[in-house]
Amino acid sequence: MQHVKIPQDRIGVLIGEGGETMREIEAEAEVRLDIDSENGSVAVETVGDPVLGLKAPDIVRAIGRGFAPEAALRLLEDEMMLFDVVDIDAAARNKNDMKRKKGRLIGEGGRTRELMEELTGADVVIYGSTLGIIGAPQQVDAVRSAAEMLLDGAPHGAVYSFLEEKHNEMKHQGMQYHRFPGGQS
């Protein structure tokens, strides 16, 4: 059994309407979730396939970090899918710096975050003081590198070029993308 702590305001999302999301996670990951809505603690107990059960704490953590349940459940698509978190707070000197760095990651009208998703095929969510990533190892690495470049103060143009390059590398290697919101291919 593993214990995961998630923010209070994400418990409703984890449970879902009438417990729907919780039941879906339990069924697909073959686990039992015991959610303490008082303190945000979630006990994850494997009841079926232990390999699937290993992904369940990451699914709960991903929902806690701002992902929609559908995106978090992508972790079960294949054993290579990863969930990673970049701590924005660790790169910031103070509250204002934190706000500025978070703004750099989101971009004007959310464009930078969207481009990270479009060009890598990973799901990217910025919530609180973290940037969460769900995707295949190469996708997660590309987003993490781009996020770290932005946090270190790299110009957005340079980061976009880096992402384009990674996009072309992955396309060349035949990596499959789960979506292209802009309709490009």
From TrEMBL:
Species, as recorded: Natronorubrum halalkaliphilum
Protein name per UniProt: RNA-processing protein
Cited Pfam families: KH_1 (PF00013), KH_PNO1_2nd (PF22891)
GO MF term set: RNA binding
Signal peptide span: none
Record NCBIfam families: arCOG04150, PRK13763.1-4
Domain K Homology per the UniProt entry, residue ranges: 1-81, 82-152
Keywords: RNA-binding
